[in-house]
Fold this protein.
Amino acid sequence: MQAVRKSIPPVTSAPEAIDVARVVDAPLQIAPYEHIVISGFIRDAWKERIYNDYPAIKEAGSLPLNTTKYGPNFQRLIDEMNGDEFRVAVEQKFNVELKGKPTMFTVRGNCRMKDGKVHTDSESKIVTVLLYMNQPWQNQGGRLRLLKSNNLEDVATEISPDIGTLLIFKRTNNSWHGHLPFEGERKVIQMNWVTAQKYVEREQKRHLWSFIAKKLGIYS
């Protein structure tokens, strides 16, 4: 297993692990806010390789990608998501300028019963990408709900976190989302285009200190 690089330069070759055409072809949903959901974003030939190279995370909560270790196939996935072809497809789909905007990656491996509370993302996030990495999902809890309001039962759509399922949405003041309680393994990669690099650095420090505090038993 290899350590993550501190900076992730865009790949220059055509994506092999991800199917960007699915993003291009996906219809943009405008309710309850602009989003797309697609399956099969990770090509079949890559699913097992990437799944096996996913960071081994025992802790709950989000971890900055640069604090984890993983294999080369997972690295390839991250490189392609951080590449120009995927960025351009997202820009065109959501009519937003992302060139030159910093990206931020976090990963989750496990979920706690208290996770999944209804929220909108912070104003520093422009676009949120969630790529799920789980075997076929049998539980009702842990399925992400896109909401019409800040009520978890006010559901517009619900997304099963199966491997290769991709959700992209533009952050707004009403981009409410959350899920029913679930405890156990729940793998997801979160990518954000953000307004400034200082936000990335601040969030990485916040996640890291939260992780350290949990390890030390300061809070759970």
